[in-house]
Design goal:
Blueprint lengths: L1 H20 L12 E4 L4 E3 L6 E5 L2 H12 L5 H4 L2 E6 L5 H12 L7 E3 L15 E7 L2 E8 L2 H6 L2
Parallel strand pairs: 3-4, 4-5
Antiparallel strand pairs: 1-2, 1-5, 3-6, 6-7
Length: 155
Amino acid sequence: MLKKLLLVALLCLGMNSGVFAAELQVGDSLPTITLKDQHDKAVTVAADVQTLLFTIEKPASDLVNTYLLKQDKAFLDTKKAYFLADISGMPSMITQMFAIPKMQERPYSILLAHDALDTAFMPRQKDHVTLLKVKAGKVEKILFVNDEATLAQNF
């Protein structure tokens, strides 16, 4: 019995390490990304994207929202940037009743990952915004940001 449990644990660890190995690194080509936004509209990240913001936890998402609400309505478009949020860990009732209606009030698009596999390729660090700088379709820089000044400085 102990051998079976050990085997299952090793297999699980092997699968998890494969997921982490798939995360983007500097120099990697950006995959095609198509997600629905908060208005249920499918959006494909343009080939000339320069910046991707990615959040999972609420504090990081709040940081991005606070920053973006201070910018003009076309800020993300003019910067060739996209905001991706993994909301797969949020209870569906909370998502539908509270989170999405609040997101729909935002003047910018938020691309939503309802399934964690949709953004498994994105690098992540707990309680941080992932900021990817992209040039000619390749990841040029990966930053993990947890304050507004650093976020603004790297846009």
